[in-house]
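Design job #97: recover the sequence.
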């Protein structure tokens, strides 16, 4: 395993991290594995040297956090694990059960600690921008969380550069924790954060954690090559409305074609090529692996050792066409996830 500091913090994280959205309850999303299956995946990840595990209270309405907490408790490795979770997406239809208000953040933090079976969270992330809550109120809540010792580092996900910039600079004029990281959607088929988000983070010492490194499956193989898919992979492909909303354009398929060409030339998988491109980007702290099969972890770890040539990197980058900044497709997530009242 290879490691790097999370931005300009002293926290050391594995270059590959395990995303826990895949574990919890199939009732929430049909492709999600039962929480009890998380233990063997988490133990496999730990054996491979992975120390960063990313979840959220919203995933399976808390059952993903429970699955991670149970798995780490069974391993006895809480001290070695870096737990990242998120807050902000609706946990139910009730008032104050979502958003970034002080009431919801602090209540959710205690709920997450209980589910994760720990007394502190390493990285607590704002899951999504909340236009209805003043930033100062959110920062007050995060400051309280850090001062209490329940949170060590804070970060965010699914923000634009414009909406997160005030939080990045807030520590300069008020009591507020300094943001340590940003989790971004970044892959060969979506690179718009290269415009402003990545420079903002690099210039201010924030680490970058990548989600959707394979464009929600687009970059794993040809979208028509269903014969090679496992039942779990096919279930996700067929039911992932977010993937269908965000990916699959003609330009995406042109990019996939180049990935496939290089994969054939090197006799490796297309996912290995796509992940190797990310590991070639020096500004990335960690790349999330969303595993549905144990071999997904093996493939993600092995991709760190694939070194692409300058010519290959140029070929992979060349088909990309700038496009509008994607939103987080939360409408599609809500449409496909089972609601909780």
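Job complete. Output follows.
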């Amino acid at each position: 395993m290879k490691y790097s500091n999370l931005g300009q913090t002293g926290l050391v994280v594995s270059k590959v991290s395990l995303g826990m959205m895949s574990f919890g309850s199939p009732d929430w999303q049909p492709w999600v594995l039962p929480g009890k299956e998380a233990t063997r995946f988490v133990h496999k990840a730990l054996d491979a040297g992975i120390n960063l595990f990313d979840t959220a209270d919203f995933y399976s309405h808390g059952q993903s956090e429970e699955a991670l907490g149970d798995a780490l408790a069974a391993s006895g490795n809480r001290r070695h694990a870096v737990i990242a979770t998120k807050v902000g997406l609706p946990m139910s239809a009730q008032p104050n059960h979502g958003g970034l208000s002080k009431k919801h953040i602090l209540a959710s933090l205690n709920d997450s600690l209980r589910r994760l079976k720990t007394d502190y969270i390493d990285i607590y992330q704002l899951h999504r921008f909340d236009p209805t809550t003043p930033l100062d109120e959110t920062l007050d809540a995060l400051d309280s969380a850090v001062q209490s010792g329940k949170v060590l580092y804070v970060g965010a996900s699914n923000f634009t550069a414009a909406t997160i910039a005030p939080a990045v600079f807030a520590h300069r004029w008020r009591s507020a924790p300094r943001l340590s990281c940003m989790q971004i959607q970044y892959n060969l088929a979506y690179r718009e954060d290269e415009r402003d988000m990545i420079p903002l983070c690099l210039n201010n010492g924030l680490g970058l954690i990548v989600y959707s490194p394979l464009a929600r499956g687009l970059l794993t193989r040809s979208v028509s090559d269903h014969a090679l898919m496992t039942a779990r992979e096919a279930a996700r492909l067929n039911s992932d409305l977010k993937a269908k909303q965000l990916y699959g354009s003609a330009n995406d398929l042109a990019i996939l074609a180049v990935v496939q060409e290089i994969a054939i030339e090197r006799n490796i998988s297309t996912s290995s090529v796509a992940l190797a491109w990310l590991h070639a980007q020096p500004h990335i702290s960690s790349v999330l692996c969303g595993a549905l099969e144990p071999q997904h972890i093996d493939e993600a770890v092995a991709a760190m050792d694939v070194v692409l040539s300058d010519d290959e990197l140029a070929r992979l980058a060349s088909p990309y066409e700038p496009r509008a900044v994607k939103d987080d497709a939360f409408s599609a997530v809500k449409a496909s996830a089972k609601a909780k009242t």
